[in-house]
Design goal:
single chain; 332 residues; alpha+beta; four-stranded mixed β-sheet; three-stranded antiparallel β-sheet
Length: 332
């Protein structure tokens, strides 16, 4: 099966003598999959790799000509019962995970599905894997058994066939902090990232993030580690943006591709030096905090207290996505 998404196929098919351009978030995913590499000409141009050409050829063999836009058909065929249930269940999860035996929901006793169901949902184009920073090249679900998440087509199915009001995920990224909880003597493991940072500024960002979205969709932007889940164990460190060991925009592009931020509305809470590293791969990033740290804390407090402000931020984030996404759009 082809390893390139419908949006990626559309971008690759529109190349001019191997030179590829497109929405920055989509290009970040193609780079993460090693299907394109930056081109010396600049201006956001990339050069298709041999792997990219093979991926496009495979797509065209399976689907015909790549679409100009990855739009779903008007009416989608009803899936068999178990596959239908898998898509609808995923659409009702904040993270839109199609859970299998190897995923966290299985261990929590939440709904999960057998590999045969996952394979069928994936083959239908309703769910797909995400590239990871450690991938050496394009990989498939069959090779990795990696977690599957709904695609725009999967969400379209859930709206049509399950009457689920599902839209793009709402992801919140917050800056880390310089004040960190020390490791007690004798404790070998670190703290969960969500408990490591104890400064008042970071805690205000975190409180606003908690009010804005589900915990599964919050990421902390660590100056050393990049985008981390709240439950990822970390030890205290002394690195700030700009240091030799600090994350770069290239590192952030790999992390944002792994989180599929080209298919999400994204709010960032924190300083502009952090946002500047995210924006190349997430051009639709919304940064609603203005002024200095005191003003930031005040706005975060307002966001915690007023649902109307939170919804206003999400409306702005969705509008930015619509304005800046040129391929594979999905109306919110």
């Amino acid at each position: 099966m082809s390893t390139v998404s419908p949006t990626g196929a559309a971008i690759l098919a529109a190349h001019k003598d191997g030179i590829v351009t497109g929405h920055a978030a989509a290009m970040a995913r193609l780079r993460a999959d090693r299907l394109v590499v930056p081109h010396d000409g600049g201006k956001g141009e990339h050069r298709m790799t041999p792997a990219g050409r093979k991926a496009l050829e495979r797509w065209q063999e399976e689907h015909g000509d790549a679409p100009a836009r990855a739009m779903p058909p008007a009416i989608l065929r009803k899936l068999p019962a178990r596959q239908h249930e898998a898509v609808i269940t995923a659409a009702q999860r904040p993270d839109q995970l199609v859970a299998g035996r190897d995923d966290e929901p299985y261990h929590k006793g939440e709904p999960w599905f057998l590999g045969t169901t996952l394979r069928a949902v994936h083959k239908a184009g309703y769910a797909d894997i995400r590239p990871q920073p450690y991938d050496k090249g394009p990989v498939t679900w069959e090779e990795t058994g990696r977690s599957l998440y709904l695609t725009p087509l999967g969400r379209q199915y859930a709206r049509q066939r399950g009457n689920v009001d599902v839209r793009r995920r709402r992801v919140v990224i917050i800056a880390c902090g310089s004040e960190k909880r020390p490791i007690p003597p004798g404790q070998r493991h670190g703290w969960p990232a969500g408990e490591l940072y104890v400064g008042q500024y970071h805690r205000s960002l975190r409180a606003a993030a908690d009010a804005l979205t589900d915990h599964s969709l919050i990421r902390i932007m660590s100056a050393l580690h990049g985008l981390v889940r709240l439950n990822r164990p970390l030890h205290p460190y002394d690195v700030t943006i700009g240091d030799e060991k600090a994350v770069t925009a290239e590192k952030m592009a790999r992390d944002t591709a792994a989180l599929a931020l080209d298919d999400a509305d994204v709010i960032f809470l924190g300083g502009q030096e952090y946002a500047a590293l995210l924006r190349p791969s997430v051009p639709h990033l919304l940064t609603p905090l203005t002024g200095g740290m005191g003003e930031h804390r005040g706005l975060c407090r307002q966001a915690c207290e007023h649902a109307a402000l939170r919804e206003s931020w999400w409306t702005q984030a969705a509008s930015r996505f619509e304005e800046l996404t040129t391929a594979g759009e999905e109306t919110t």
